[in-house]
Amino acid sequence: MIVWQNGSLIPEEEVRLSPFDTGLTVGKGVFETLLALRGEPFAWTCHYRRLSEAAHLFSMEIPSSELLRNAVLAVLNANEFKVARVRVTITGGVGGPGVSRKGAPTAFVTTTPFVEFPEEAKVCLGGSRDFTGPLDAVKSLSYAENILLMEDAKRKGFDEILISNSAGNLIEGSGSNVFVVRQGVVMTPPLSDKCLPGVTRALVLNLLKKEEWSHREISIPTDDLSEADEIWLTSSTRRIQRVTRLDETSCGAETPFFDKMRARFDRLMLEQIDP
To answer: What is the mean pLDDT of the chain?
Structure first.
């Protein structure tokens, strides 16, 4: 694959990263994963805004939106991809010893063929954590906890694991946001519950408003999930995925809301509207 590193297109085997880069040594850095359609990054403005806000927490300066977007286009073109999974990664750069570890950030853009998620997912409950630190709901390179949770779900035969807090309220999946439909109301945990401010989550909420569907951002006790009519997972690469099994119980036998929203979201993507 051809990748972009700090302004240059190079074969992946020529990438050089210092062993003293703080992205490696202390996990200092941020990333975004997004889809490209027809050779264009989808919802780029939203992704760049979140990347910039996350970098600000690390006091990192990142390349401009225009520069990074052009880098995405260049990588897509070099690899001859029209539909692809794109990742933008910004590390903290080389830093000295001690806690400051300040260096010039290292920027990467990589792309791989897009692999479609199945329309259905089996999920389990089991992840639990309380967010109390400055990296709450930030896509940082310190992503090991999410990976461990996902691996645990896979070992048990599930596609995703749902995370709750000590109050017993749903937060998110290890790599997804969650929507719940009950009695005609579409609900999702509020950002105040420290769920990731997902780009697809925000786009779905915008569509719910536009279509004037009844919806709420509200804390959702995990005990209430057994009474849900529908459960959806959302992320940039899975788009919207319906849950058909929660632990050992089947759910979502009929999904009229999902069917309409999935069709509406796919239409939005084909229109290539950049919010």
So the answer is: 92
